[in-house]
Design goal:
By secondary structure, the protein is α/β, with parallel strands linked by helices. It is 36% helix and 15% strand. Helix 3 runs parallel beside helix 4, helix 6 packs across helix 7 and helix 9 packs parallel to helix 10. Bound molecules: erythose-4-phosphate and phosphoenolpyruvate.
Length: 363
């Protein structure tokens, strides 16, 4: 029986045996189309290149600064992210001799079960899933932040979205829920930026150590080109990978945890170095505990521990978090995912870390 109503864009056909659980298939813009609309200016390109090289030098022991990945748990608004970026850029410039500050510009949220999956997946925060708009808004924001002179960091979660933004990224993360995924390790092996692998959500570090070994190797896998064509990608391997201690069943930021992580890494033939995420399970998701944890890590750095090469902080314009509730206006500058410390609370933390780096250098 035929219907007079226009069919939705879908491949669903009850006579077929595939796509039986697909509700609709909508067209997606290509990375090349977006790049033509939003090209990378020369200055932004130079910043990405120089900041990636600087991060790589820290990871290889040729620069004694601390990499600090700091910013909102998730981006949900362009103007608020730009306000944050402008304030962070002032700190990045003031502390640049000691800290290599990269802004967290996280567009993709891995959820424990379900929830808002981020600015690319649902940029209007209302379940309309305007992914084409989300990709454009994400790329535009990264370009605007780079325009301020501030490098950007992001989590790579989706396997196609990197083609739309990854040339703008100076440091990337693979999250706790995907560190064990072969596809994400393969992706990391071909990314142009340094990559941090979180330990597993249970605190397991071996998955991250295994991930670094996998990402260092060359791989061949299926993907999509900038022109939207499927292709086989052959990667060269990424030698700029490291672990991120984010806690699990227990916290793992203390000196004994750094010792244990480095013993494991050494045993696997990897560089003895860590980035400490002071948020997530290391703060028991209590945002203000990030300040205490950062102070503990700063003390370890000041005591001379050169194995701590990076730190991650979840910070927004205002402290705390809020739920997305249909019809209820959101508070300005407050996270819609994990709770963050405020910019006002973040500045002294950054200053304390910079002082710790100076003490370490003087030892
Ligand atoms: O960083 C953000 C969250 O910790 C992560 O996306 C999981 O969030 P959820 O447990 O609220 O889904
Ligand atoms: C989701 C994140 O962290 P994790 O993978 O450690 O939960 C994050 O850093 O935003």
């Amino acid at each position: 029986m035929t219907s007079s109503v226009a069919a939705p864009l879908t491949t669903h056909d009850s006579t077929r045996i595939d796509d039986t659980r697909i509700g609709a298939v909508r067209p997606l813009i290509t990375p090349a189309l977006l790049e033509e609309k939003l090209p990378v200016p020369q200055a932004a390109q130079a910043l990405v290149e120089s900041s990636r090289a600087a991060i790589s030098k820290v990871l290889h022991g040729a620069d004694d600064r601390l990499i600090v990945v700091v910013g909102p748990c998730s981006i949900h608004d362009h103007d608020q992210a730009m306000d944050y970026a402008r304030q962070l850029q002032v700190q990045a410039e003031a502390l640049k001799d000691d800290l290599l500050i990269v802004m967290r510009v996280y567009f993709e949220k891995p959820r424990t079960t379900v929830g808002w999956k981020g600015y690319i997946n649902d940029p209007h925060l209302d379940g309309s899933f305007a992914i084409n708009e989300g990709l454009e808004m994400a790329r535009r924001l990264m370009l605007d932040i780079l325009g301020l002179g501030l490098p950007v960091a992001t989590e790579f979660l989706d396997l196609l979205s990197p083609q739309f933004i990854s040339e703008l990224v100076s440091w990337g993360a693979i999250g706790a829920r995907t560190t064990e995924s072969q596809s994400h390790r393969q992706l990391a092996s071909g990314l142009s930026c340094p990559v941090g692998f979180k330990n597993g959500t249970d605190g397991g570090l071996k998955v991250a150590s295994d991930a670094i070994q996998a990402a260092q190797a060359a791989h061949a896998f299926m993907g999509m080109t900038k022109m939207g064509q499927v292709a086989i990608f052959e990667t060269r391997g990424n030698s700029d990978c490291h672990v991120i201690l984010r806690g699990g069943k227990q916290t793992n930021y203390a000196k004994a945890d750094v010792d244990a992580a480095c013993t494991l890494l050494k045993g696997a033939g990897l560089r003895e170095q860590v980035m400490v995420d002071v948020s997530h399970a290391n703060s028991s998701k209590q945002h203000q505990r990030q300040i205490t944890v950062a102070a503990d890590v700063a003390a370890q750095i000041a005591a001379g521990d050169a194995r701590i090469t990076g730190l991650m902080i979840e910070s927004h314009l205002e402290e705390g978090r809020q739920d997305i509730v249909p019809g209820v206006p959101l508070k300005r500058g407050v996270s819609v995912t994990d709770a963050c410390i405020s910019m006002t609370q973040t500045v002294p933390v950054l200053e304390q870390l910079a002082a710790a780096v100076r003490t370490r250098r003087a030892r």
